[in-house]
């Protein structure tokens, strides 16, 4: 039996941060980091399209859909502390106009190296190709895989999104073995799907500032930003942020409907006025140009087509009040019946996880088992797109690594 003071199950964002923190807090501590894949941190390499958007200059619990469990950790580790943590590892960073923070080198590999090198240099025993399958707890501590023994255990095995990168949901079983409950799990931050006919006329269209609302008939969730129409669904950040709501609605037997407002800064009245004035002023113009003063041409063409206004010989003067109404509906409330999402293989984060009522929000220690800690995505915490999920992974990892 290999004996340690601390075992960390899962060696990616939160697990690596926890290992570094524990060594800094308790320099003599004996740590084993157990990672299922042949190398640590694989998922980090594909984050932020290979650039790793690791935090955001502005973070509140609202970025985690109002989950108040994150409040204490965000208070202890606001964005500047995470930026400073990486600075302490030798990694410089910069932020873009939306507050998203990236490594100065613009490569996720630099961020992973900064974590990995510190762990390697700090006399932590890293076991790769080592999947944690069985965990027991007794008065004497934790026994892992009948091979490792420790007084304390941190579980940082992630969720079940992007299983090719290691997080296949096996960590939930470990939590259950130790008596914890897992809340309902749903893929989040993943493209939405619909019957292909519903988006046929929109395929390939990208809008940068649309306002999206998904409703299940009773409640709704909205987001604003980029949307991209694909062969059989809707992608882009604003659409992906509505994924877990959509999945929950489907599981509950509802039919989620997505409504898109392509001109959120124009009221219906203002757009109606714009169309009426254009028709009056330029009656002879080809109808293709009716909306190009307010929307990019590919979007305006697709929306006119959706409204049943075909180009050909049509002029502005052919747009009567009923046609104008149809155009208004297409632009301001383009509706699509959703069939679900593209699922865990394509999702960036898992909604649901270890029930946070069973975990101390200030320390990440289990309220059920002394010496057991959780951090990162395995917990029932998920955030929006924009650096919030990695921020949570690092902030909760640093908290768990304090072993308080
Ligand atoms: C394509 C993609 C892009 C993303 N981009 C961003 C982004 O730019 N910004 C952002 O904030 N978030 C992003 N995310 C989300 C973010 O990567 C995750 O929320 C974050 O990595 C979670 O960290 P974690 O340590 O909890 O889990 P993970 O990073 O999933 O790590 C879990 C680790 O545990 C290992 N493991 C799992 N089970 C076991 C086991 N039984 N035994 C041993 N080891 C095990 C896994 O192999 C893995 O290495 C992205 C996700 C994806 C998939």
Keywords:
404 residues, alpha+beta, FAD/NAD(P)-binding domain, 2 domains, 7-stranded mixed β-sheet, binds flavin-adenine dinucleotide
Could you characterize the architecture of this molecule?
With 404 residues, the protein is of the alpha+beta class. The protein folds into 2 domains: 2-186 and 346-401, 3-Layer(bba) Sandwich (FAD/NAD(P)-binding domain), CATH 3.50.50; 191-342, no CATH class. 29% of the residues lie in helices and 22% in strands. The strands form 4 sheets. Strands 1, 2, 6, 7, 8, 9 and 18 form a 7-stranded mixed β-sheet that branches. The chain has a 6-stranded antiparallel barrel with strand order 11-14-13-12-15-16. A hairpin with a 2-residue loop joins β13 and β14. The longest helix is centred in the N-terminal third of the chain and has 14 residues, at 108-121. Flavin-adenine dinucleotide is lined by residues 9-15, 34-37, 42-43, 46-48, 52-53, 131-132, 156-158, 161-162, 166-167, 170-171, 348-349, 376-378, 387-390, 393.
Topology (elements, then pairings):
Elements: E1 2-9, H1 13-25, E2 31-34, H2 42-46, E3 55-56, H3 71-76, H4 79-88, E4 93-95, E5 100-103, H5 108-121, E6 125-127, E7 135-138, E8 141-144, E9 148-155, H6 170-177, E10 186-188, E11 192-194, E12 206-215, E13 220-230, E14 233-235, H7 237-240, H8 243-251, E15 257-261, H9 268-281, H10 297-306, H11 321-332, E16 334-341, E17 349-351, E18 372-374, H12 388-401
Parallel strand pairs: 1-2, 1-9, 2-6, 9-18
Antiparallel strand pairs: 3-5, 4-5, 7-8, 8-9, 10-17, 11-14, 11-16, 12-13, 12-15, 13-14, 15-16
Bound molecules: flavin-adenine dinucleotide.
The site of flavin-adenine dinucleotide has 39 residues, from helix 1, helix 2, helix 6 and helix 12.
């Amino acid at each position: 039996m290999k004996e340690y003071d601390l075992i960390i199950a899962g060696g990616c964002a939160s697990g690596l941060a926890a290992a570094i923190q524990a060594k800094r807090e308790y320099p003599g501590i004996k740590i084993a980091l157990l990672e299922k894949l042949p190398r640590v941190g694989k998922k980090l390499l594909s984050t932020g399209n290979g650039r790793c958007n690791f935090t955001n200059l502005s973070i509140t619990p609202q970025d985690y859909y109002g989950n108040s469990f994150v409040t204490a950790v965000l208070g202890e580790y606001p964005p500047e502390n995470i930026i400073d943590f990486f600075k302490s590892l030798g990694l410089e960073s910069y932020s873009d106009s939306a507050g998203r923070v990236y490594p100065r080198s613009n490569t996720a590999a630099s961020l992973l190296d900064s974590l990995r090198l510190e762990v390697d240099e700090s006399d932590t025993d890293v076991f790769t190709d080592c999947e944690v399958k069985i965990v027991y707890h007794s008065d004497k501590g934790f026994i892992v895989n009948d091979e490792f023994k420790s007084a304390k255990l941190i579980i940082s095995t992630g969720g079940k999104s992007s299983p090719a990168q290691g997080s296949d949901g096996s960590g939930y079983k470990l939590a259950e073995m130790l008596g914890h409950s897992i809340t309902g799990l749903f893929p989040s931050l993943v493209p939405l799907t619909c019957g292909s006919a519903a988006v046929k006329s929109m395929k390939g269209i990208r809008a940068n500032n649309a306002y999206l609302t998904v409703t299940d008939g009773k409640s709704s969730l909205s987001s604003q930003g980029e949307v991209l129409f694909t062969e059989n669904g809707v992608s882009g950040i604003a659409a992906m942020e509505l994924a877990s709501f959509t999945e929950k609605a489907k599981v509950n037997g509802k039919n989620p409907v997505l409504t898109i407002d392509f001109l959120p800064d124009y009221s219906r009245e203002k757009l109606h006025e714009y169309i009426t004035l254009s028709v009056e002023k330029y009656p002879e113009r080809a109808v293709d140009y009716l909306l190009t003063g307010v929307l990019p041409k590919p979007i305006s063409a697709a929306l006119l087509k959706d409204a049943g206004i075909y180009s050909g010989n049509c002029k502005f003067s052919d747009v009567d009040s009923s046609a104008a109404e149809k155009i208004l509906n297409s632009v301001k409330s383009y509706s699509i019946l959703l069939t679900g999402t593209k699922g865990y293989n394509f999702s960036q984060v898992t909604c649901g996880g270890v029930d946070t009522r069973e975990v101390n929000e200030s320390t990440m220690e289990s309220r059920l088992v002394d010496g057991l800690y959780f951090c990162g995505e395995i917990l029932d915490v998920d955030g929006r797109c924009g650096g919030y999920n990695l921020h949570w992974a690092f902030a909760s990892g640093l908290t768990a690594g304090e072993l308080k």
